Amino acid sequence: MLLTASPTLIALPLVALLAPAACKREKVVAPATVRGRVRSANGRNLGDVKLRLVSADKALGVVRESLSAPDGSFVFEEVPPGRYLARAEQAGFSPASVPIVLEPGETVTTVLRLDPMQLLEGRVEDREGRPVAQAAIFAWPLGGRQAAVVESASGPEGRFALAGLAPGPWTIMAEAPGFGTLRLERVDVPGRSLVLRLEGESRTLGGLVLEGLTGNAPAIDARVVLAGSALGTPLEVRSNDKGIFVFHGLGFGRFVVRAASGEKVSRNVAVVIDESTGWLPPVRLPLAPGSRFEGRVLDDQGRPLPGAAVELGLAQGDDAAETGKSDDRGQVALGPVPAGRYEVWARLAGHAMARAAEIELKTDAVARLDLKLSRAAKITGSVADEAGRPLAGVLVTAAPESAAAQDLAVLPGKLPLAAEAANLPPHALTPAAQLRSAASDAAGRFTIADLPPGRFQLSASAESRLGVRKTALKLEPGLALEVGKLSLRGGVPLRGRLIDESGAPLRGARIDVRQTDVAGGGEFTGVSGDDGRFVVYLPAGQFDLVAASIGRAPAQRSGLVVQPQQPPEPLELKLERADAVLEGVVRDPHGRPAARARVLAFPLRSTVPDASAPGTPAADLPPLAAGSADRTGRFRLTGVPRQPFTVEVRHPEWPTRVLVATPGQSLFVELPRPGGIEGEVRDRSSGVFVARYRLEALGPDGRPAVDVRTQGAGFELRGLLPGRWRLRFSADGYSPAERLVEVPPGGSRNELSLRNLRIELERGGAAPGGPIAPGNSLPPPPPR
After folding, report:
1. Measured between alpha carbons, how far is residue 342 from residues 241, 298, 427, 447, 505 in Å?
2. 188-201: pLDDT as tens digits
3. 203, burial (CB in 10 Å: exposed 0-12, middle 13-18, buried 19+)
4. C-beta neighbour count of 572 within 10 angstroms
5. What is the strand order of the sheet 395-400 is part of?
6. How far are the Cα atoms of 56, 124, 492 from residue 193, in angstroms, in the given order?
7. What local confidence, expressed as pLDDT, does residue 316 receive?
8. 3-state SS string over 700-722?
9. H or E stretch covering 16
């Protein structure tokens, strides 16, 4: 055998002896042939049908492709013996396939019969038989048959049509906001028309469009738009010859209705439909002169962009936004709309915006603005585990480093992915949602497209693994940036269970975990399941945990230690109900009512911040409740815990006051007079001024100073909460210095109560946070 593998080493007599064996091993296997015909369900021959011969060995995939002749015939020649699947596909027909086993030299004849795609029609109704508009209908094949989910929506009369269904059993589901979900496990196609009856009762909204604010003449054939978060797309009707309009089949939700005719428009009228809503009174929509918007959509090189979708909505969120498309010259005109402040969004595949353009529209006037769309950029890369193996399904997210960093001069804004954009209302495109995400594929690769120019940070996260972050990614218009491989290490599971005061599990609560033993430690999150259980994967270290849920006081745990290969013991956290009330009054330092003071309730913190303990974080949890003091200084907070909690009182003119409150007791808050510091920074050995340095200030409540002013060697800190402050100074070539100072209250709101503070920096490289230099001792406070 070894000799036959190397013929050049074999003597000639041996070749003759081994030749018959070699010929036997190299015997050629005769190929097979597949012949057939493609016909419709009624026996008609079908030409130009796409045919594929697929190997049963998935690694080989498609081995032959062809098209049927005009008479429906087809042939696959020179096919290696084996097991195959012959498949036929044609638009308007459901695919057909037949298994084939080919022996050497065999010719197999078959027929592929295509059934026409079916149309399933029906009507969506409420429990009283009234039509339900804008219901979403989904259909997918029963029994695991390979076919995509088919979607549709009901029209104004509740009617729908699901097109392109293959004959056979299907599952149908219908749902609409404010109604229950209906699911039919088996519906045979073809079949009779369906009636899908949803739980709940629909409402009818009607009204009258009038000519003029004071007139009673009906506006005929006015365009009336109904929009809202409960509707996928706005509904439109026309007023009749009496000015009357009607919208049928509405579920629960908040709606906005508006009418327009010619150059006149009505104000937006809000209507709320909930469980307590009975008969809806008619809506009156008087028309008045409106405003119009005209603009051009340009790319980052100033060229017009035709076909861009443009939305004009109120700056505070407008479900009834006006929409349109730019023409061949990039121009667009929208309106009429009521006067007010608006946001303008534009979107086009392959282009992106960073923010919305804001514009003020005035009555009976046309406002003009150029909208700039930049060529979209994209980020590509891969994710792998610590051993370098690719990870599939990892969520990779790109987010702007700073909202202010997006510098499209004409039109800042946010563009969603092209596939999402068509279904997003304008109010959903907010700067707070400037995120793009993608999941890695089987090879660990990912692509995040449709990104606006600017500086981004990239984060990757996956269950049971520690997330990674990559910062300072600068994207230019049209750039494709490759970031290479992101490595995700495995984490240690921290498990637990959340319960209420009765011991029942709490689902959907958020768990936030922060590492505390390293500066700038990571933050990790989780969500409790139906059984109240959660798991968060962490690196080794020390952590603080906060669990929060709507309507409940958060629970906290501090000093949790996580070690590799040794998961912590499971936690059980109880979240008490937060349904108490707190009332009180806020006064300024002169005893006058502090109108406009903002009062916020937070969980009682497990640690008290202190300026002498640097790095102690201030509370950054979402408030449990919030309210404002009225002109008499009084406030009322609802939905606060029954046990003591922290209250922060913020006012634009006075320092924040933090105190502990107990429900049921009236709280009196007097805002403190602010103090201020004035000083200078010098070289300790020479006494010369140090003009370039960094100053950090941490107050007695653990919060940094907000109003910090530096000019050369001099510095001022204003609006400080009276008490002990820690000042930290650092400069290139100098050892850091720290100073603890007692800041007294000032006599007035802008008074600098501590003056002539001299900070001396010593040349060298001592580590930050070391001993305070002797020359930086605490001076005696000035007289109050």
Report:
1. 33, 20, 11, 33, 45
2. 888 888 899 887 77
3. buried
4. 12
5. 436-439, 395-400, 454-461, 468-475
6. 39, 11, 55
7. 57
8. CCCCECCEEEEECCEEEEEEECC
9. helix 12-25
